[in-house]
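ingest -> validate -> predict -> emit
validate: passed (alphabet ok, no gaps, 248 aa)
predict: started
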Amino acid sequence: MPRLDGKVAFITGAGTGIGRATAILFARESAKVAIAEIDAAAGEETAHLAGNGAIAIRTDVTEPESLERAIRATIDKFGGLHVLHNNAGGSTAADNTAVEAPLDEFWRAIKLDLYGTFLGCRFGIPAIAKSGGGSVINMSSNVALMGVPGRDCYTAAKGGIAAITRSLAVAYAPQKVRVNAIAPSATMTERVKRLVAGNTALQKLADSHLLGLIEPEDIANTALYLASDEARLVTGQVLPVDSGVTIS
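emit:
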């Protein structure tokens, strides 16, 4: 039996990279998938690749009205919500230490990564509870678990996501809502490949992977586990998928 049969999943930032890989995998496992993506063309392409009736909804996760409207449209289309994957986010080459990073870059990272996740939970968790329970999957990072120099804007945002994951897990367990986070190391999406190129600290991090570099499908497989009933007793966890970087 498919692992997500009968479930409705809402995935932000699913136009490319990890989000796209997750949408395709979830649809293959029989979930009805809503792709929330600010780039409408990329979202539509993912919906086409995923199949199984997947829909794309143009969504800006930093705007409360946009995100609330997208979740409502998903429920209207599919009749409920069981899985929320707050995947939208990312760092840029402008990141640096707290002393040297542009202030605009700090607020960009906080607004997209942390605030976007906060809003996803704000509107998605009540819908999941109303549907009988389910799974929230946030995206933290290995930078929230170890010291990586020169990425303090991104680190602040992803550390906040790890913290709110734990508090929400406690708050909404009585409503059968599980809240977990995945903490990848550098995952070889096209965006990360460009970011790593020429960045000495990030290249050193990429070279320290014990089992090889991480692909988007590796993160999607972890998201599938957390979305499925196999993880019914897993909540409040931040799961590293990092090829051993945090222990090496």
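Helices lie at 17-28, 40-50, 64-78, 103-130, 152-172, 190-196, 200-207, 216-227.
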